[in-house]
Fold this sequence. Notes:
rod-shaped; transmembrane helix; alpha+beta; transmembrane; membrane; Late embryogenesis abundant protein LEA-2 subgroup domain-containing protein
Amino acid sequence: MSRPLPAPPVPHEYESHPVPVHTQPMYLQPYHDTPTYGADESFGRRSSVSLQDETKAQEQPSAFEESTQQHGDADEEYYAPAMYEDARPPKYRNGIWSYDDRRAFQRQPLWAKLLRIAAFIFIFGLIVALSVVMLIVIFLRPPNIGLQSLDLPNSASQIQIQDQAFAVNASLTAVISNPNYVSAKINNLTAVPYDPNVRTTPLGICNVPHKTIEARKNTTISIPCELSYNVQEDSNLSVIKDIVNRCGLVQGSSKQDLQILFDTHVTIQFLAFHIPISISPTISTECPITRKEIKQALGDHADILNELGLGNLARRDEVPEEPRVPFHERLRALAMRVMRTLTRGPDDFETDPTLHDSSL
Length: 360
């Protein structure tokens, strides 16, 4: 059963007649784009609310009286929400989305919801990936590369000699230190050996295509090398002269270790970044060749041997020295000769040839 509306209050005597309103000061009078009642016809001039307009405004019924006249004795809940809809406080919000936004999201179809979730995952993953890449780029440090030793074959028979050229297979040991927290890869490592005093004639090549470098560790790799030298490529014979002098093959020179400079170029890959590194270290190694091998490589080129100072040494190598007989063997042979001389007659000297041996 509906509740009766409260009776309107009884107006007082002074409220039965409108109170005259004085004209507002000039600085409080509003601006109007169109002329109002009682104002000039010119556009944009000031106008004030007249006494008749104020009286007419007071005689108009209020919103409560209109709703009462319209609905009569209807329930208050029927028209109250429509009257005070704008006066209600906003509904509770949790986060950046309002209540109406959430209701709009709930009305979306399933494919739109899945697309929104996928877009969120993609954008979030992209932000995380870019953050990681930026941290790596900021704190990334290049690795340290050092060449440790050059391993040559122990046997001289492994040296290939052909057409005034030497060739030998060797192994270059390198140590790479990675100070970063991510592993790296060597895409290509090339080392070209040179004589430190002659940087124009290469002495072979060393190459390794792919290697993995562990993070925060020292990685030792073995690089296969092919050391070679061609006399025809060395016009001034500068390289072979330096080798002959350091190996002590020339009279008056002392034997030393060979100095080999490796012009090294390496490309290291960190994730999607390629870092080129170039170094030129020098390694010492024992002399791998002898006078006989040099003479065999040069062949009949006596002029080259003489220019290198190996002409006399080469001719001496052609006539090998006979091994010397030990002293006790010579003494024993002399005693046997004396015994034979004392025990035999004069005719035995003609039949026994050992008695005429002058080598002793």
